[in-house]
Batch of 4 targets.
Target 1
Amino acid sequence: MSSFIVARELRKTYRVGKVDVPALRGISLSVEKGEFVTIVGPSGSGKSTLFYMLGGLTRPDSGSVIIDGVDFAALSDGERTRLRKSKIGFVFQKFNLLPTLSARSNIEIASDIAGVKPDSEFQKQITEMLGIAQRLNHRPSELSGGEQQRVALARALINRPAIVLADEPTGNLDSKSSGIVLEMLRRSNKDLGQTVLMITHNPEAAEYGDRIIHMRDGQIVAPEENPQWTPHHPAAAEHLQS
């Protein structure tokens, strides 16, 4: 049986002034359905470039990305957009919330864009798990950084995507908010069967994954298994008890 996500020999070089800067140097990896994979590495290692390629947001110079048997390279721009809408939820470090909308509307806009009806019961469930159910009528400027990131996570999960891509989702958060976000990602992986790929520079956050992939200088340098996963934030785990 083929893997759910397959990247083959991905290469990408950016032009900075008069200098070519290689971002990816022939990356290949595969992810099984329902895996939680964390990708770690220093700044400039190519993590974010890989993230954007796996999500179909950036084209490689060469190589391919195959999602559930579908090759991104074989799709038109419109088809690639539809695939992202139907299968992938994104969580970014900078939240990317619309400032004029309430938290509720920022979550529901993902359903509007995908052309599906918001599942109010599921929205209630995840916002309660994330501790933001009482903050849904507030705009982003009225929320803390941790609350904003939890709204962004709820937005990524609301359509039950098969894949969740999280780029440094705890990078701007305190330890309590980080724990809540990480526990929710793990719960979406275990309870909803979502395949999660998370980029992080935080070794403790990386241990939430089943498998850790290390990157350096645009290449994978070591994969690791992490079968004995345990929560590192007991307070967050308690917060998410249903």
Target 2
Amino acid sequence: MVKARDRFRERLEETLHQKLTLSHPLFSMLLDEKRADKELLKRVALQGYQLTKNFLTYIENLFFYCPMEKHKRRLLFNMFEEETGRLSRTKNHVELMQDFIRALGISDQERDAAVALPATQELIDFRMEACTTAGRYHIGAAAVLIASEGQNLETLGEEARHTILGRVFGLKEADLLFFSVHQKEDVGHVQQGLDLVADLCTTERMQQEALESVNLTCDLFYGMYQGIYETVKRGELSHA
């Protein structure tokens, strides 16, 4: 017989997989081998960088405020990898994203001058508020460890996003380490997130709030891509 806790965990995972952001039309444009629109890829990369810059702060707060020793220890390894890249034998994850951006021909000055679009900032702010506000830890954990880490697990058929990007744009494996590392590491991180949130949410209200957090976070990711898509359609947002 399935226990209530285990059924809730299953519902969290089902909610994640029902909200696939790769269905957004932006990806049809981005992964079109006949088009190979590098300017579009630059725009997407610079918005993605706004997320990457904040991710360690989310994990640090989730680690610091974690009320369960077993899960706190797991978050420590997650945080250690984000900061050092030692477990994947690479480097700091922000630096990996910077390497990808440089491979696209974007200078460090252009990268640092880029700002988050409103929809991108909304995603950043929602997760930051949830991770740093008393009484909302379970919402932040669901948003970051399940919905956000789960974004890196999406594939088109048997191929990961970064594999297709590499082929379309002629990028080397070293240029794409940010994505390949996350695709591998986040399989475990999502499972750990599911365990944490399932153990943490001991009331029906907490469970519902966690499910809503996964759903909303995925919607905010979709909204970020919609924000980029709309600027492209209007001919706005230079990659600088």
Target 3
Amino acid sequence: MNEKLEQILRQSASVFMRYGIKSVTMDDVCRELGISKKTLYQFVEDKADLINKVLDFDIREEEHAISSIVGSNITALEELHRIQSMVTQKVRNMHSSIIYDLRKYYPEAWNRVMQHRNDFVVGCIEQNIRKGQKEGVFRTDIHPAVIARIYSSRIEVVIDSSLFADLNLSTAEIYVEAVHYHIRGIATEKGLRFLETIENKSQPKP
């Protein structure tokens, strides 16, 4: 990828994450990035094209990061914990309107999100569950493919914070609760003990 385009996409993603999508104009993007509209339009056709390119770039980055975690020769629970930490940091900086804006105004981009979820995310979760079953930390009386789809669809609800608007909790806090709910629903006693060990190690030292 062109280095300048990568820089534009990375910085544009940050702008959309902070302010949402619908409310941000191309003028706003140029102002935030410190570039002219002429420069921006050398790389994208319009706002919809920018959003599609930003989304594709973000998905590639996320898939690479998750694949690196999965390929790092650690246990299933450690994988989940590291991915949880990565996603928590991401949603902590996510504007609450992003999911709504994509669904309503940019269906092509939203379809790409759904494709990513239904293929890559579901596949990773199912693989993680099967790995955990072999390690004895996840129950063997559950159907990995079913649980993977339930979990991935639940995360979409978590990030779309309208359901939790009255709880005065951040999206990151709600996401962590959802992950804990998932793990404790499928973990064995061995898995729960190991999870406690991992969480204790990750706590900041006083």
Target 4
Amino acid sequence: MNAPQREPVAVAVGVLLRDDGSFLLASRPDGKPWAGYWEFPGGKIEAGETVQQALRRELREELAIEIEQAEFWRSCRVDYPHALVDLQFCKVRDWQGEPHPCEGQSLAWQQLPVQVHPVLPGTIPVLRWLAEERGHKGPTHRPD
């Protein structure tokens, strides 16, 4: 017998990039699935929102920043035990304010290979994409 189909949850994700090439990762706060794992910041896309609108709202709520522009980059689907997630990744190069952890998470600016650990499974493809773009050879993160 086949398992029931799950409706995917659409999520807008920001890949915040600084001029030096570093990018921002956030730890998942206590009380959420995969607490303590590192990911790119973002959240669910609400009904009627575009990816960019959702990302603006989520980064305001999570990091207390106002993004100027978000450029859609790539997407991928991740099947977690708790949810099927459609991740919509946007590169963000311009924002107002300094990212501040508003939800009890930790923040870390990283380069490849990332030093924070453990990394959320949905983050690993993004690290690979960044490595491809940058010509980075070798690991992108520490294995679990």
